[in-house]
Write a structure and sequence with these properties.
Elements lengths: L6 H7 L31 H5 L13 E3 L4 E6 L8 E6 L14 E6 L3 E5 L5 E14 L5 E9 H8 L4 E2 L10 E6 L4 E16 L2 E9 L13 E4 L5 E8 L12 E3 L5 E2 L5 E5 L26
Parallel strand pairs: 2-8
Antiparallel strand pairs: 1-2, 1-5, 2-3, 3-7, 4-6, 5-6, 6-7, 9-10, 9-12, 10-11, 10-14, 11-16, 12-13, 13-16, 14-15
Length: 299
């Protein structure tokens, strides 16, 4: 997973995760990772620059920086301007630590803060959560925070619109950009394909996105939106990559096909699809896990 970065490093570099999921080096917003957390990997300005490719078609507007990860303000096709805004990141970026296999965090109070970025990547303000609407590392690796402000209030104050979640499955070969609000870096590549099961340590994710080799994401990029360059919509959320060539261990996810065959791709990175979030969000931007078409794990 792209590990979360330590809060002190975050404060110095950004005031503003990469593989064992992709968080920035290891601690969470207010609490240290649980014993399930992977060993830290320090992310420095030097390593952050290596391997990045700036995509001119996509900018930073609507992305956010967490204390240890990246994220974005997102909306569904049915979200209204008056709805409380949502922030998307990874489940392994939660301030409470990595959720265990089978664990779902649902409607849990949170006051976590996020630095909102403009198109140029400058921090323009602070957004605050009212709750963790949903979070898990089972089948997928997502966290969705509900904010204290509406989309209309954010746009009125900062002139920034939320990124829209694509309601359709991503397509192989699509040109994409991974946008890290933590590092203020972008990574451009293509959807190389899809992984039946992606296994890393205790966790297993379904139908994951595999990038082509150009997207060399690092610690701190966890939770970054993966944007379809043609539509500007979010199709996935960046979360992990195989660092050392090991098989199915923390920081070294492996691919498992329908027959149980295991493939290791050292240096290749992955994301979790987000179209499945859309059916689970109903009136008022509230999660309803019993809605038709919602297949996210339940508490």
């Amino acid at each position: 997973m792209k590990k979360p970065l330590v809060g002190a490093l975050f404060a110095v570099l950004l005031l503003g995760a990469g593989t064992a999921p992709a968080v920035a080096a290891t601690s969470h917003d207010t609490a240290a990772p649980t014993t399930r957390a992977a060993a830290p990997r320090a992310a420095t300005a030097k390593t952050a620059t290596a391997g990045t490719i700036t995509a001119k078609a996509v900018n930073f507007a609507g992305t956010v920086a967490l204390s240890n990860c990246s994220g974005s303000v997102v909306r569904t096709p049915g979200s209204l301007p008056s709805d409380p805004a949502l922030v998307l990141s990874n489940g392994h970026c939660l301030e409470s630590g990595f959720p265990g296999p089978g664990e779902v965090v649902f409607n849990q109070r949170s006051t976590r803060s996020f630095t909102l970025l403009n198109a140029a990547g400058s921090g323009v303000g602070t957004l605050r959560a009212s709750k963790i609407a949903y979070g898990t590392m089972t089948d997928t690796d997502i966290s969705v925070y509900q904010l204290t402000r509406t989309y209309a209030q954010i746009e009125s104050t900062y002139g920034i619109k939320a990124l829209e979640l694509n309601a359709a499955h991503p397509v192989q070969g699509t040109a994409i950009t991974v946008v890290s609000g933590y590092w203020k870096r972008t990574y451009a590549c293509n959807v190389d394909g899809f992984v039946y099961r992606l296994k890393e340590g205790e966790w297993t994710w379904k139908d994951s996105v595999r990038y082509t080799s150009a997207c060399q994401t690092i610690g701190g990029t966890s939770g970054s939106p993966v944007i379809d360059n043609a539509t500007g919509k979010v199709v996935a959320v960046n979360n992990t990559g195989n660092e050392d060539g090991q098989q199915c261990t923390d920081n070294n996810p492996c691919e498992v096909d329908e027959s149980g065959n295991v493939t290791v791709r050292q240096g290749i990175n992955y994301a979790q699809e987000t179209y499945g979030i859309v059916p689970c969000i109903g009136t008022g931007n509230q999660f309803d896990l019993d809605r038709p078409g919602c297949e996210l794990p339940k508490p």
